[in-house]
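Question (not urgent): is this output format expected?
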Amino acid sequence: MQSPSELARQEEPEPADVRAEAIRDRCEAVTPGSWSALTFNDVDWYVWADEIQFNVTTLRHTVPNDGDGDEEHEHVLAKRDAVFIARAREDVPWLLGERDRLKAENDQLRTRNAALDKIAEVCFARVLYEIEHDTKLDALRVQVEKCLAKLSESKEPPLCP
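Got this back:
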């Protein structure tokens, strides 16, 4: 019997980079070149390695011939599976390349965003410094305070400088 920690480790998702590398390794290990799906009798479907003229696999969905007409449907499934497998030979490496491109773009954007965050932080600190230390603002604050004082002493609006 497995301990709870062993069960928890089994349920942890595989890191995306590790999984992508395992997929890439499997792609590099298969028969090279482009593949096609073809048939000679609409029953047996072959995944054919075009460049080396090699049958990668044969697919046949079999059902008992019980007269219910499902045999044709099973042949269609075998064709669809064969086409999927044949196209996967090029589709999976393309998807891995697209993943790599998007990951690199994401890394660049994260780096750029980090740099922009630092620039914004410096600019914000500079603005705060200017607000706190600007003598014009201090002079304006003094004038506003004088106007408010005069206003509280008189019922008529003061003429502020």
